[in-house]
Design a protein that fits this description.
Helix content: 25-40%
Largest sheet: 8 strands, mixed
Number of strands: 40
Strand order of the largest sheet: 1-2-3-4-5-6-8-7
Amino acid sequence: MEAPGDERGKQSEPLAQTTGVYALLADGTTVQIRPAMAADFEAVKAMHDAMAPGNAYLRFFSLSRSAAEQEARRLTRDPGPDHAALLALYGTKVVGVASYEVVKSSGGKSAEIAFAVADTMHHRGIATLLLEHLVSLARGQQIESFVAETLSENTSMLRVFSDAGLPTHSTREDGVVSITIPLPPDDTGKQLEDYLDTVALRERSANVASLRPVFAPRSVAVIGASRRRGTVGRSVLDNIRTGGYQGRLFAVNPNARQVSGIPCVPDVASLPETPDLALIAVPPPAVVDAAEACGARGVRGLVVFTAGLDTAVCADLLATCRRHGMRLIGPNCFGIAVPGIGLDATFAASHPAPGGAGLVMQSGGLGFAMVEHLSRLGIGISSFASVGNKLDVSSNDLLMWWEQDEVTKLALLYIESFGNPRKFARTARQVGAQMPVLTVHAGRSEAGQQAAASHTAAIATPLVSREALFEQAGIIATPGFGELVEATALLATQPPPTGRTVAIVSNVGGAGVLAADACTDLGLTVHHPRGQVKRRLHALIPGGGAVTGPVDTTATVSSADFRQVIELLAAGEDVDAMIALVLPTGATGDLVAAIQEADIPVPLAAVLLGQAEAVRILDAKAGKLPAYGYPEAAAGALARAAKYGQWRLTPHTPAPGFGDVDVARARALVRGFLAQPAHGGGWLPPADVAALLRLYGIPLVATVAARTEDDAVAAADAAGYPVVIKADVPGLVHKTDAGAVLLDLRTEDSVRAAYRRLADQFGGQLTGVLVQPMITGGTEVIIGVQDDQMFGPLVVFGLGGVATEVLADHAARLAPVTEADADTLINSIRSAPLLHGHRGSPAADLAALRDMLMRVSRLADDLPEVTELDLNPVIAGPDRVVAVDARIKVEAQTPQDPFLRRLR
């Protein structure tokens, strides 16, 4: 068997240069997946011709000499709606093929699948990867199941099917196994979630394997190691040399024999061995050539420090890395560090301390600053990456690495742009279930967004979508860098609270009041002692103190009594966390020591009034605890930790499926509209809007189109007075603003007068009117969808009506919206009390409102062509929830699978 590294570039047969995607195999190596084309015939035939007789027999059930040619012609014929074929290329060599052929079936649209893998590439996950891509392709063509036949002795292929994460049904006859594989349905139910979880698990394993040469290298080469001090290459080399790295270190410099005591070679080809990791610090014109030399030598990981690369050079750099299967960090980055193995491949002024915080930053300067803070606090770094322009390795990759490295206890991210937000959210949710994931909101202002875009050469993500992503993924997001440090200090030393009730105790009454105010403002509940606890506090606290909460021990409390007070409060069953504030005075003992020595069973944040540092870490009986300089900082850190703790305790079930949804007819309606030459995209007419909502079970008030005045009267008589009349004017979106909605019409005469008024106002633009019964009572809300080009559909909920934009009382979640997401949407707007029943008014039907939110989310997720949807107002009443007005905009889209296994 040939060595894997020998496979690249050994193929002389011409290959079709068709754009595909790159993905990782189980061992972390890279292959390209792309459609087969006619020009690939010779290459595909050559792969089959090279198969050993035993493998050919397993594939074709025979040893026919013509089988390879026939199969190659089948796979490389022109594309069609009833078949598809994919190739896997390792370098330039075809090493795997997969195909499906649509077959007639009484149980829905089905396709027969077939696979072949080059003899030298077995057991590396090629067939599994190709199957995943076939599944994605087939689901986009509404294929409902795969069927396959394989010999019973073909255990490798049977294992591919059984381990795919999809249900399989098999029968055996005469040594042949017939397999049926139902594909995940369009709804976002358990079958799809289970499959995506299985795919994600394979992706994480492959990703980790690909990153080992970067974050656990056995040898490192610095390319561009200058003799001049103060240069990036020299600083990086010196940091590795003095940082305690135990692996082999090499330097490349054509003009020096040694740099800083490290022998130099003139070029990569002259290195005494192939390094796992190459660090490139050369001028911009030399970057791609240096990367090509590394790839040719078999290097598996690159860090490119060089800045100022234009778009074309960046594209060439990434293409070089993909072609040679190298993972890339940068360019325009500050490097990486893994203090646990002594690797400091940065040009920082000091070495990072080892510890449990994983750190990935697009801004290298902020990364260095955070490393300094974490080192000073004693939290330390498990691994650090400044990803710069983020051409390849991103926060997704680092989260997967930290999940398994058995060192990282919390993850910190500084993200200015996203490559695949939906995959990032899924990864962050997975990692967040076992460790806190923290970030800072960067680019919240218009000026900040512009700065972020220019700094990272990427479009900054819209704030509302990013906030929704962070909320749903359980990411702890802070408004600023200081708050990020403060929250990190708490979560690195304390478990997240399981609730939101905070006991506050202080020897300075005013400080306790400030802490209570800050907690209340942040949604925390201040604990008020009662019963026996209150009586015991009275016995401990000197006269003039307060025991009702926040507890004021007075400035003269002894250290022993202060310790007893905080231990007594923390032991309460209704206390979830504690803030202890102290100002040492001459009349007290060592109150800081009292806090450190106390037995506290709940998360604790200390506030040392007068402390110079904003936050520091104290030794404590139970380990470590954070000490803040200000009450507000402690309250903010606890509030963020409590929110994270609540997210971890909330069941995260998949978005439900709806058995009454007719996705096929909905797609046909949308595509039929887009196929009309006069449209090509735009606002659906009212009849189509009503039909589409009906297909998703979304209630819309009964609406009758009337083309004449008499028709309007007849429709009003049928609906029952009072009624509403709306002008039907093509292209008119904001009807109320245009005076096109006339309410509370109670007689035939008022209906006729309304029709004439609209006819006079809009003239020839008026095609008729829409007549609806007048809905009274309930609360007006808005439910909408805005398609985000990067994040996908965003479901918006808030107070509705004509003032919705002025009031700006909205919340948002990315589709698909789960029951928990829908409840959060309903309860997170300021007007939520109106929906729960306010001052004696009946509560809205919250179950129906939740159902409507999830159905709208399902519609948006199923139909990527829907770029905008407004249900405004939706009347949320005690006995029903119904949309009164609706508009839907559709545009042609190219469907994307955000969860498909592929590299950026």
